[in-house]
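task queued by scheduler; priority normal; single chain, no ligands, no partner chains; default sampling; output format set to structure tokens
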Amino acid sequence: MSDVENFIDFCTSEFGRRLMDQEAEYIRKELQSCKRILDVGCGIGSIEQRLPEFNITGIDSSDEMLQEARKGSDKEFIRGDAGNLPFEENSFDGIFYLTSIEFLPDYKKALEEASRVLKDRGKFLAMILNPDSHYFKNHTNKKDSYFNRVKHRNPGEIKELASRYFTVDDEYFLGIRDEDTFPTHEKEYAALYVLKGMKKE
């Protein structure tokens, strides 16, 4: 199956829907004060479907993903590169990466671009697959898992660089055991490592 077909299968499964619902609710809570938001690596637009009240622009490097995203949401979806965003400075009040920044060839350039397009005190949110979790390790044991495409497996390095541009707090989120989800901040169970803050003035 193609990447798009795999993502559709996951996002429409009962387990996938539960995960996406919880991720969307986290994003809603963190970015609810933002008037204009950028989703970097939007994929098939699952978050956009779940946050209809938000003014989100999605950007992705895959035409196939964007075609699917446009079927499910009337929000704006643009083809582009996270390391060279096609927007002017100070364009957004919020920016988020949902399991995308760790897959980028150059996350350093992506963070620099995030700072450029965010307004002063604009909100920054990166929800990163936690490589120390059982969930991640179980996936990387499968030869064909897309988790094996993760290019950066030290989220602490991403946090260190992000701290140059943003005030950053971190936490672990979204416990997963088999296909059960539960609240946790424990490193070994949380599927996501979250960086959140705002652009430094």
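post-processing summary
- The beta strands are 37-40, 56-60, 76-79, 92-98, 118-129, 166-177, 180-182, 190-199.
- The two ends are 46 Å apart (CA to CA).
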